[in-house]
Structures are given as structure tokens and as C-alpha cells.
């Protein structure tokens, strides 16, 4: 079930209404569809031609990453997965190794609540598809892949050669590669000395600089309506990421099954409607904004605070399935200070 709301979502980008029509005061936007979602690159402070060329360069990079890390169409990732399933060694490259090593660190830090090695479970539930349809895997099938205990720490790196101690590992970077794409986009734009840009990959957003006097502002979606629950200003090198139960999910017997799976049980998680986190600093804000929302989502209303603290996440908002809004003090302060008069 996929609601026709993606464009509505993109509209949440509240582009500042820039006054003055000087050529370089305009925000130029390049849009596309990659990673099964809408992407948008907004560039400020450049001529239209240059902004378009930069947008095109970023989209080209997204396309490369999409094909390299695709989880179910033939890609380097599926080739690696095939090798793992056969118990063979795969000759990868540095980029793949670095990405998987960083995912392994987050998996371990999160006690494997973030676990991109559970591709078999993600596939079993029908989420390795562009069309989400009702699925009902049997308990025995689920148990098989939970008991096989696939972990990122099963991977063995020998230079750029990768193998796995566990043939049940199937890598799925659906909750991680878009974050990497954001970081790559930021690298491209910064290398070109772009002063201000906003990159949106399906609701994971990274900000560079500020467009004029005011910062970039983005909306946080209300998971149960087409509206917004809040908007937030992003400073340079901040990224915001959301995991939600309202875009990729199916309903079965009155129960909602979103595309995030609890690796401990192999079941979909239905206690959380959305988790939004803001991270800043370093060369990997995109990755952190994407990867870290999964452990919060899986930990759920009862445990997300302890996991957030453990992962060092300061700005987190969780909306549970009953639409109760909870957040860290830092997130609360930030939203309050930005609400302004009225
Ligand atoms: P989006 O697809 O909108 O970026 P998320 O960032 O929330 O959504 O990522 C969800 C995806 O993460 C799923 O489609 C699946 O590929 C993957 N995934 C599901 N459960 C987990 C988990 N426990 N750990 C890591 N990745 C997961
Ligand atoms: Mg994501």
C-alpha cells in the first residue's frame, strides 16, 4: 500500500521566500526519482546553469549508488549476497567495505536493533519490492531466519575481500544507503564550493549553509495526516531523518505492518508511527540520520530513550501508534525556540 503522498511530502520543504531577484538569490531545484523515492537538490547562491549542472551531478551519483547497492535487483550488493549464501568470498571495493564497516559499528552499538543483515526477513515480509502487498509469512519461516541469527559482525573483511561466517546473512541497505547518498551529495556540492544547499532523499534531509539571512527550514510530517506536526530550521551540516509506518506498509487483519522489522522476533513493529532524529557534525550526518532511526523505531515507546542515550542521540522525536508525541528535552527546546510568536 503506497499512498500517493510523496509529493505532498516533498512540499514540506519550506523553501524560504527569498526576496530580491538577484540572480544568485534564487533557490534552484533539481528533482528526480531514485531509491524508489523522490529526491530533490536545492541550490542557492549559484547561477541557474551551475545549479542545474550541480543538481545533475548529484542525481547521477544517486543513480550510481542506487544501482550499486540495490537490495533485490542485480547489483554489487546482490552479488555479494549471492557469494555469502554460497559460502564464497566476494571481491568488493573500498567504498562497499567502508559502508559495511560503518553499518557494523552501528549494528553493534544498537545491540543489533539496527541490523541490515536481516535481508531474508525483509524479503519474507514482501518489503523487497517497489509495490508493497499483503504478506503473511508463517511462524516457521520467520523462526528459521531469526534462529539463523544473521549479524553484521558475521562479516569478515580481508582488505576489500568480504565473506561471512554465517550464510544466513543477506545485506539490505534500504535503511542506510539513502543516508550515504546524502553524504555523497554533500561531498560533491562542498567540493564545488556551494555556499548553501538542501538535499532531500525521500524525507532524509541534509543542509549546507543557509540561503541568505535565514536558515533552511524543513517540516516534520504528521504520520496520521498529510499535514505537518512541526517545522525546524537546519543549520549547516545538520541532517534530519525519519522512519515512519505510513508510506511503506500493508494492513492485514486490521494490523499495520510497516517495513521496519524487529530483528529479535522477525516481526514487523506496530507500536511506533514515526521517529525523527536530527544529527550534526562530521562527514557522516546523512548516514547517522538514516541508520539511527531504525533502533529507535524497533525499541519502541518503552525503550527508545535508553537506546537514544546509548547511541548519543540528543534530538529525537517519537510519535507512537496512538499518536502520542514524545521527545528528548533537546528536541523539545529546539522546536519551542523555533515556534516563535503564535
Ligand atoms: P525509507 O525507506 O523511507 O528510507 P527507513 O529509513 O525507515 O525508510 O528504512 C526502512 C528500511 O530499512 C526497510 O525498507 C528495510 O530495507 C530496512 N530495515 C528494516 N528493518 C530494519 C532493521 N531492524 N535494521 C536495519 N534496516 C532495517
Ligand atoms: Mg531512510
Report a brief summary of the structure:
The protein has 342 residues and is of the alpha+beta class. The chain has a domain at 6-68 and 176-339: ApbE-like domains (T-fold), CATH 3.10.520.10. The chain contains ten helices and 18 strands.
Protein architecture, described:
There is one protein chain. With 342 residues, the protein is of the alpha+beta class. The chain has a domain at 6-68 and 176-339: ApbE-like domains (T-fold, Roll). The chain has ten helices and 18 strands. It has helices at residues 6-10, 48-68, 76-86, 94-109, 119-124, 139-147, 177-191, 285-291, 293-311, 329-339; strands spanning 13-14, 27-34, 37-44, 90-91, 155-158, 161-164, 196-201, 204-208, 216-221, 228-234, 238-244, 249-252, 255-258, 261-262, 267-268, 272-280, 315-320, 325-327. It has an eight-stranded antiparallel β-sheet with strand order 2-3-7-8-11-16-17-18. α2 packs antiparallel against α7. The longest helix is centred in the first third of the chain and has 21 residues, at 48-68. It is globular, with a radius of gyration of 20 Å. The relative contact order is 0.14. Residues 175, 178, 204, 290 line the site of magnesium ion (MG).
